[in-house]
Hints:
- This protein has twelve helices and 20 strands.
- By secondary structure, the chain is α+β, with helices and mostly antiparallel strands.
- The chain has a six-stranded mixed β-sheet with strand order 10-9-13-17-18-19, with helices on both faces.
- The protein starts with 5 loop residues before the first helix and ends with a helix.
Amino acid sequence: xxxxSRTILGGIKSGVVSSISWRAARSTNLYLESSxxxxxxxxxxxxxxxxxxxxxxxxxxxxxxxxxxxxxxxxLLHDAQSGEFYREIxxxxxxxxxxxxxxxxxxxxxxxxxxxxxxxxxxxxxxRCPIRWRKGQRYAVLFSGASNNRHTNDLEFLYxxxxxxxxxxxANIYVxxxxxxxxxxxxxxxVVSWPGNSTAYxxxxxxQGTKADMDAVLxxxxxxxxxxxxxxxxxxxxxxxxxxESYLCTYSGADYHASDFACKLGTLPKFNxxxxxxEQCHSGGFNAPILTHSTATYTSVxxxxxxxxSSIGGADFDPxxxxxxxxxxxxTPYGGALASNPDTDGTGKVSAREAHxxxxxVKDPYDTPVYSESSAAAGNFHLGQRYSYIWPIYCRLLVxxxxxxxxxxxxxxxxxxLHDKLMPSLREIEDxxxxxxxxxxxxxxxxxxxxxxxVMGR
Length: 458
């Protein structure tokens, strides 16, 4: 495609900026596609086709740049020969969702900047009591379709939390991201390291962020879920609303509408707990359909925003997803302390309701979190329980003994040994433990040190 002259492009830029209000000039980002769009072609605003009826220079106006998509935006079309404005088209999506942005598409008025990476000094989180889970299996599905970097980063944060803090088996976590790999649309490029601690991404991917691949994973779980099992589903990236219901954007193929997603969940066998956390715009429209169709005895749904609202995004993470996961983790993605203790009832676990309440308490003011549960008991469900509530002395001793290993072993290796080898080896001690007095503490410490050394090494 040919590129218009500098004179024409300069006139278009000046005309657009001059025509917007004082408020819009402070909150609207403007982008110019300097290549001429030929008559008879289409602009594809995600799945909205905008026909080009004459040779055109397009200006894209992002009217809410801090939000995830869908949110208000406009396509301002100008005659390629004269630069004269001839049409404005309202839309909800940008011209490039899952494709690389061409060099000819450039910002020329950008009062709102969210692309600059944040700088946080990563620290090793404080070691806490290990998590226990004795009954049933735990499964998780992590989904992001038309991903940007922040969406993939959210998934990685949750994956690390499930593996390290809660000991989910790797085989029980299904990650569906973008094109099927650790990739996303937009910058930063190349995709090298996770911003939490600048280490390589650890999550394996099992498919693309598409409806077909999500359905395939749910079909797989259909044959696995049993009566005592827990299923966590996290959806990320972008979402929209078609006037009737919310939908989840995908990398390619069909969008995933709330009614279809809920009906698909209704095909699962009966199981114990379904915990859902959704980050995408208009995610609140999924809450009621999920509760209606869930086959789980206990169901909770935590969404970043109301049905007709958009969720806010960030440079490296989405605020609501980041804070919900941080509540479950016990630290920020950078290893830092939380604003408050999410475990408000002191039970040694962070429940689905408590994670939502924490994320809601520290939320970005643009977000409008929505929480729903099938019963009061559903919100009490958790991904695993710490020992501290039941055996405070046991917990204190275990952390004391493990801390030197935690500080010198690589994090993935430490937690793999902890969950896969040490915790099963400690069950005999735990089964005999009905409560420990101060007089018994010395003998308990000896037993814990002996078992830990055998498994962890010296």
